[in-house]
Amino acid sequence: MEEKQPVLELQNVSVSYDSPAGMVHAVNDVSLKIYENTIVGLIGESGSGKSTLGNAIMRLLKNNAVLTSGTIKVMGKDVYSMHKNDLRKFRWSQMSMVFQSAMNALNPVLTVEEQILDVFLSHDKSMSKMEAKKRALELMDIVSIDPKHLKSYPHELSGGMRQRVVIAIAIALDPKLVIMDEPTTALDVVVQRSILDKIKEIQRVKKYAILFISHDFSLVSELSSKVAIMYAGRFIEVTDSKSLEQPERHHPYTQGLLKAIPQLTAEDVTIEGIAGNPPNLVDLPSGCAYHPRCPAAYDLCKKVRPEIRYVDGRAIECHLYDTVQSEV
Ligand SMILES: Nc1ncnc2c1ncn2[C@@H]1O[C@H](COP(=O)(O)OP(=O)(O)OP(=O)(O)O)[C@@H](O)[C@H]1O
Ligand code: NI
């Protein structure tokens, strides 16, 4: 049987920033496939490389960043071998991103309607203003914003509404892949919940492939079917979300993160954080980058970087699991 084409395919992707302190190895050798109608979560501590990867997929890296290895394909097309003009059409129509803190980056001098119309009219020169206005109204309905706010300026809207506008802009052209970088982080819990429910609802209807970036483990595992756990730029584990209900047979870092989630039902609600800090990405530790913080680290971990092993269907980079099985 012919294998279904992934919407997003990352193959051994690495990204570095050129900085005065040296090369910052922000993303290191990550591989992942996301198929249509699925949400994959990407989690990791601050500075682990999540946004860099999102920006890399969109080919919107900062000037001092370089894709040092690997390929990024969206709908089978290599994003980095695309001609600039094709890329301009491809971006937003096939792949889009809700950028971290984007709700604070809406243009303050344009109304919501002007910003949405701009997306339609800049991508489809043949679209009439009438048609674009009709589509903007439909979008407002999808993200549940009263159409009267089309005439509002961003500062007149609440944070939750601005975030809905940003999501509306990202899905305006009905892309196949939507990257959402911490789309609810700055919002209070109630608003966060309503935005999440909205994302789930839109995803169900539109069958998007979504890469959902967050540092909130419980939120990500609720929303996604699969989760990639990033540490020092590497996917140290890629697992189905369901498996996260059991703390056994995961990467020690994943286990540390799981322990850090407050268990509201448990009698003992002490939260154990992970001791230590993430490594300096200019000068990564030898062997496994997690070894200085890992309670289970032994000699080999300091010397040799672990290859991926497949443990109960999870891809784990850890020496504790010594049998290197092939992917089944
Ligand atoms: N323009 C830049 N120049 C140099 N280094 C950078 C630049 N942008 C990011 N970095 C570094 O790259 C690493 C990864 O950053 P990135 O923003 O991708 O992390 P993140 O996982 O998204 O973090 P957060 O959860 O805080 O958003 C960090 O060490 C950061 O300091
Ligand atoms: Ni980020």
Automatic annotation (TrEMBL):
InterPro entries: AAA+_ATPase, ABC_Ni/Peptide_Import, ABC_transporter-like_ATP-bd, ABC_transporter-like_CS, Oligopep_ABC_C, P-loop_NTPase. PROSITE patterns: ABC_TRANSPORTER_1, ABC_TRANSPORTER_2. Its EC number is 7.2.2.11. It is found in: Cell membrane. SUPFAM superfamilies: P-loop containing nucleoside triphosphate hydrolases. GO terms for molecular function: ATP binding. It is a peripheral membrane protein. The keyword Cytoplasm does not apply. It catalyses: Ni(2+)(out) + ATP + H2O = Ni(2+)(in) + ADP + phosphate + H(+). Keywords: ATP-binding, Cell membrane, Ion transport, Membrane, Nickel, Nickel transport, Nucleotide-binding, Translocase, Transport. It holds the Pfam family ABC_tran. SMART domains: AAA. Residues 8-257 form the ABC transporter domain. The complex is composed of two ATP-binding proteins (NikD and NikE), two transmembrane proteins (NikB and NikC) and a solute-binding protein (NikA). Belongs to the ABC transporter superfamily. This is Nickel import system ATP-binding protein NikD. It comes from Heyndrickxia acidicola.
